[in-house]
What we know:
alpha/beta; CBS-domain; three-stranded mixed beta sheet; 8 helices; 38% helix
Amino acid sequence: xxxxxxWQTPVVRARDxxxxxxxxxxxxDAALALKTxxxxxxPGLVVDAGGSFVVVxxxxxxxxxxxxxxxxxxxxxxVWDEVSADGLADRLAGRHVSDLIDALGWDDNGPRxxxxxxxxxxxxxAVMAAAHVPLVAVxxxxxxxxxxxxxxxxxxxxx
Length: 159
């Protein structure tokens, strides 16, 4: 315990800030995973990569659905009409969650996207910042407890 102004305040751990989340497997259908992401309200998709958990930020799903020329020059997005734009998610047809991970350029030697339940708020913040992800998986003994989002972390850090 740490002391603050003469009061004993318990240290907050990752498990205290966790909200529920489910994970998908790399071989899962990307379009279904996108629907899971949309209904979860989370800023990213949690992928169970066999004992390691990877976060695909929602914004990065767009790397897979947007044409390369629009990524290279966003102004070219103006040539798309609304009907075509509404069909962007259709570009995930036949793709897998592993394609989303590949679009990130993630490798096993990169920053972790997970913490254990005893991680402090500073550890959580450091993982988010190093990995450029808006949430981290909270894992104990290989089991996903849930996630801590950047919004939840900031809410805790601000008085």
